[in-house]
Amino acid sequence: MRENRRMRLKEDRRGAGSRLQNGYLTVMLALCMAVILSLFLTLMNGVRRNGARLEAECVMDIGMQSIMAEYHRELMKQYNLFAIDSSYGTAVCGKANTEAHLSGYLSRNLSYDDIFLSDYLYRDFLGLSVEQVELTGLSVLTDYGGAAFRGDAVEAVKDDVGLGLLQEIQSWVQKVEVNGLEEGKEETKKQELDGEIKGWVDTYDGVEIEVDEDEWKRAEVRNPTDQLEATKRLGLLRLVVEDESKISGNIIHTESLIQNRMQQGQINHGNMARDELTEAQELTEKFLFNEYLLRYMGRFGKESEEDALRYQIEYLIGGKKSDVENLKSVVNRLCILREAANAMYLMSNETKRGEIRLVAAAACTVIALPALTPLLEGAILLAWAYAESVYDVKSLLAGGKIPLFKDDGSWHYSLSSALSGSLKDESTGGEGLAYEDYLRIFLMLSGVDTITARAMDMVEADIRKTPGNVSFRLDGCFRAVEAFVRIGSSHGFQYQITRRKSYE
User: Fold this and answer.
1) pLDDT tens readout for residues 134-159
2) Which phi-psi region, left, alpha or beta, contains residue 184 (left: φ > 0; alpha: ψ -120 to 50)?
3) Whole-angstrom Cα distance, residue 414 to residue 411?
4) Degrees, nearest 5: CA angle 221-223-226
5) What phi and psi values does residue 389 have, to the nearest 5 degrees?
6) Global pTM?
7) CA–CA dist 282, 271 (Å, integer)
8) Structural contact between residues 188 and 381, judged by C-beta atoms closer than 8 angstroms
9) CA-to-CA distance for 147 and 409, rounded, in angstroms?
10) In 3-state terms, the chain is what percent helix, strand and coil (to 5)?
């Protein structure tokens, strides 16, 4: 019995030890589980927080890319310019519209509503939602007097245009400026000479003389240039364009266009800084901008029926409301330039000066007024230069080429042909500068701000002719945006993100 009792005591002791050991394990396991669970919850919260941050940043990037993808299609198609039209086809433009679009893209990308059976199969682990969207920075195409527009235009062509042409244009412009070819002194001088000659010969009306020359037949003593003057009074445009019925009659109303709104202070402005350019960079930019305009806008001989004005380059130079007036402006300016260059050639050519002296002396001999000879020589020289300039302009408009300064080989009219006043000749060949090259000279001589404002007028007018763009405004077009977004989570944390995007 003692042994049985001992055995039972041993068994009781073993059971108590086992129960005590089991209790230790339970406490240890509970402690370990608490630590592991805390670590797990901490890690899960970190995963949620970092995952939410990653999703917020990804959604922000996607949203920014989405609004940049809403560039105006017609602006890109016609002028190769990328910009967000903040009106989105409506009559109201402004950053509020773009903010609403960005907010919509962010909310849509944070939502699970488009996932199949999202209410039953998925749970929003991150719980993100958009709390604030604001465009804190904008660059508008019309900023800095259109410098932003000009910069984007330069970017569109700079890889395709060689700078060798710039040096050539600079040489042309320098010759025009140094020689004063655009001053129009020849026409003023011609009118003064005609007035003086008229005072001398009023008493000699209708007398005619014979001049012994190969081509010269008859000349009026009163003034050998009278026949040419009669032709001149028909109008220069009629002399240089064969079929006036083909001249465009398009007209634009500039009251609602960007240039007028800029003058009235009625445009939207951005707030992004502009990089300052050096003098050399400004010259290069002006050249490239002009080449962009010549590439993307129409002119006489290269018209587009879809444009608001057919002669857009002529509008940039002339600034008139109609195609006819703009063409007249450029043709007159071109004729003045050519007349000055032709007069310089005649004054330097002794052979042709001799022909002029012969005609003038013969006329003055008949009426016994030798003192009139120098005046008549000047009038005849300028008349001859004018007749040649009409031929030059007519040839240029027909697709020919005329050198800036002529020589014996490129001179066309004889003196008798010029004074006859017919001026019917036309050439489409030759060497020298084409009509487009003379337009390059005029563009380089014009103020870059004026050309930029008129170019923006043309862009607005053209885009407004396309379907759905009747209220299009360049000052509502954003070329770069900076956005601030605050995204909150239902789990108590939020993220603030700023991004900047542009088309550069």
Assistant:
1) 999 999 999 999 999 999 999 999 88
2) left
3) 9
4) 125
5) -70, -35
6) 0.84
7) 22
8) no
9) 45
10) 60, 10, 30
